[in-house]
Fold this protein.
Amino acid sequence: MKKAWLWIILPLVALLISIRIFLSVNPLEPLGVSAPPIENLTIERTVLDDKGISLLVRAGGSEPMQIAQVQVDGAYWEFSQNPPGALPRLATAWIQLPYPWVWDEAHKIDFVTNTGVTFEHTIDVAVPTPQISFPRFLAYALLGLYVGILPVGLGMLFYPSLKTLGGQGMKFILALTVGMLAFLLVDTLEEGLELASGAASAFSSSALVWLVAVASFLAMLAAGRRGGKVPEGSALATYLAFSIGLHNLGEGLAIGAAFAAGKAALGSLLVVGFTLHNITEGIGIAAPLVEARPKFVTFLGLTALAGLPAVLGTWMGAFAFSPHWAAVFLGIGAGAILQVMVEVGSYLARTAYKLGGTWLSQVSLAGFVLGLALMYGTAFLVNF
Amino acid sequence: MKWHLPLDLTRRSLLGAGLLGAGSFLGKLLPTTAFAAQQQVSSPGESHDGGGSMTVGDVDNARNGFNPREILTDWDTGKASQLADGRTLREYEIAAEERLIEIAPGVSYPAWTYNGRVPGPTLRVTEGDRVRIRFKNPGTHPHTIHFHGIHSARVDGVPGSLQALPGGEVVYEFDAKPFGCHLYHCHSAPFKRHLHKGMYGAFIVDPDPKRHSKEEKVALSRLLGSPENANWQEFLMVMNGFDTNFDEENEFYAVNTIPHEFMKRPLRIQRDRPVRIYLANFTEFDPINSFHLHGNFFDYYDQGTTLTPTLRTVDTVMLCQGQRGILEFSFFEHEPGSYMFHAHQSEFIELGWMSAFEVVA
């Protein structure tokens, strides 16, 4: 036993010693390595207000980076940096520019570091950044409600009619749910990866999205099946609501951030689009409940679980946004969606088995394809 | 992806679309005034002097080893001696030096220089002088000094004609002619890189009054050291730029290398003495640069090779790469105050080539 411990500690100590030696004797010298430091700058937040333009930057250099000058629209501009000084790797600072920005127009910002390297950032449409205030908070919440709660709730209203469906009908609806989830899985991953591409490269956010998705999928699957029981009925509906909620968080995030950045012209079309787009989610959540006898309050709870994260998302997107955390959330969402796809799929297979068939039939295929088609079709209303 | 929400759709077009009845109904329910686009926030107006359009901080001239303000007037007449035929010999020692310089506050740049400075030393001689330049190259790339002037191909300072290889040394020798505002630069390949990294300087040949009897007074006023010349306020201004990220576009523009130097601390001139500017354009990448004077007009001598102006009463001149000339003007009848001068390309102004005279009575 004693020996076993030794063979854990010894390799670690040897590792530390070899790193120490490497750093102190500079064995790369014969290779003639004297490359200039690698520099990287990520702009994580942009705030436009009556004081000008403020940008939250994150350094990603191999050595501490110094922002020497800042251009706005090709003009050097006075700026202040808080905290001042060189930025160590992954440190953040606010850059404040008293620049007379122009409503609804684009601005380009170039950061020049002490080595003369430049980093560009574009503000596509300049509008004031929302400051936290109670009415604005409510307005964003309402937006989240329209995108999250309303469609899920309306979808749940299909429940009584779902109950009247026979075995084949149930297969169809479950398959439709899996189809919808397949669309959401792709959508969530895409959105997560896109956010990841805007995050500081040191975070390896793209890999993080995949890893978090796999880990959360396995964790959710294990949690759902603990005690050797496969989730059904209200348990399955709860997992569905949870995973769809995480997806809606991502949607809320996108909407909130877009509104705040002036990228979205506020249109009822957009809100209606999301409402239609998400109505299938409510049907999907209600589907596993057909054979159970849920209370009314269960429906309310499920609606809240699936819909309220959209509200949270719009707040985060509008008021406190960082791309790497958003990417992590969406990774969790993707894993959760995959878990419910598996569980709804296995529920579908069991239903089909009871009816004396297999999971793959003309009915289930039609349901799956319709689920995809519905989501794809309504996505026309929200993607520009 | 929802990330790319409509950029080109205006609120009007969306609301007006009337695509979905329910949509406009919901639209009315939403308290749109609470959203960002409706915030009653204005952008800040002009802040203070210069409107905020300025580089931040100052360059450490001492560490650079040269000062853009001193370069205005530090004429280098070389080591003078008498030749057997009575003419003056002017000898110079110039060395190539590859070094980091701070070309804008906080921004260092791996420059190639003559004698450690950009622009290089301002050589000032008189028409007919014999000029001998001993050029050492302790650097890692071949370099030359190619003078603009009338001389033999043998001393032209191009690859194959007195190029100094690393560790090498060459001597250029020629008679100074014609008089004018000239320049010199490295002509080694790759040409553009050797230039924009800083290997250039001014070469001024003053007219010899004895050779220009009809315009002797004008010639005397141009001749450094004459009493007539002493009354003039003479400045060398080399318009240049630096491409710090090597994308073949300049990040900084200036006269005498340091952006905004003469905007932050305007150049004092006395109202009752005339002003003469030896202006040279060494901007790379941009085909032209220009000089514009506020509240005044000047006479211009293109290349400085005439004693009568080639352009009279202008307030802007345009110079292509390598072009240069002499500007003459005065503020005799002006109120004292700050009179700006700068390129008349807005791009260059905003990237540092903005300056001012402080005219004092």
In short: Chain A touches chain B through 73 residues (CB under 8 Å).
